[in-house]
Structure formats: C-alpha cells, structure tokens
Amino acid sequence: AGGVDGDVTRQVLAEAAKAWRNSGGSLPVSGFVPLPHLRTAAAWLSDPAEVDRAAVDALRLTDPADAPAHRTRMFWARVRAEETLPGPGPAADALTVRALRLDQDAQVDDALRDRARALLTRGFAAGRNMADPDVVGAYA
C-alpha cells in the first residue's frame, strides 16, 4: 500500500518555502495549485458529513468519530482529484470510464465525472497515485 514518505514531504515543503523566499514573498498560492481546484475542494468541505463519509471509506476508519481529524487530508486529496479530473474533455472522460468501469461507449456526464472524482479523492487520501490510469483501474 502506498503512503506518504515523510522525508519527501519535508523536502518538497522546504523547496516550496525556498521558492517563496526567492520570489521576495510574492509567489501566490496559484503558483503551486490552480485556485479553481482549491475553491472547488473548499466548497466540497462545506458538507462535513460527506467529507467524513469519504474519510471513513478511504482510510478504513473503524470509528467514524475519528473522521473529522482527517478533513485536511481529505481536502488535499480532493484538490489532487480536481487536478486529475478537472472537467469535460476526452482525457477526463476516458479516465471516468476507466475509474467507474463503464462500457467504452458510455456517455459521460457531470454526474459520472462527480462519481469518478469521489473515487479519485478516496484513492488519493489512501495514498494511491490516482493520476495513473492503471492505478485508477486497479483501485476501482
């Protein structure tokens, strides 16, 4: 099972801090993550019950009362899902078909993309590389 490597995380954060310092403190958050993805993920957090259900499912929590402690992790997983499946288009539709194991001729709509995005969120939260279509296919 994949997980987060603490040394890699520290290195990435140190490099991000260095890039920000070298920019004179003027590098916006949008330099790291497109803001629409952050906004969409933040809007998803407005339904804590849904976020907590996703945490229980993704992280296999035995006690649902522990789910609120994982909301930050779920938020960033949702950001990654938004980056991976941003909206309509051939690549996003192909990933949706793969994630949901639909027939190749399926007509992908917003509801199906939302279901796929939820699956990607759970996978990213569990430490899977859901940007890889093969991982998505195996995780689904």
Write the SSE topology:
Layout: H1 6-22, H2 35-44, H3 48-59, H4 71-84, H5 90-100, H6 110-125, H7 133-139
What's this model, at a glance?
Helix content is 62%, strand content 0%.
Tell me about this structure:
This protein is mostly helical. It has two domains: 1-32; 33-139, no CATH class. Helices cover 62% and strands 0% of the residues. The protein has helices at residues 6-22, 35-44, 48-59, 71-84, 90-100, 110-125, 133-139. The protein starts with 5 loop residues before the first helix and ends with a helix.
Distance between the termini: 15 Å
The total of helices stands at 7
The average pLDDT value, as a whole number, equals 86
What's the count of strands? 0
Summed up, the domain count is 2
Multimer state? single chain
Radius of gyration: 16 Å
Strand content: under 5%
Protein structure class: mainly alpha
Q: Which residue ranges are poorly predicted, with pLDDT under 50 across at least 5 consecutive positions? A: none
Which keywords apply here?
7 helices, 140 residues, single chain, mainly alpha, 2 domains
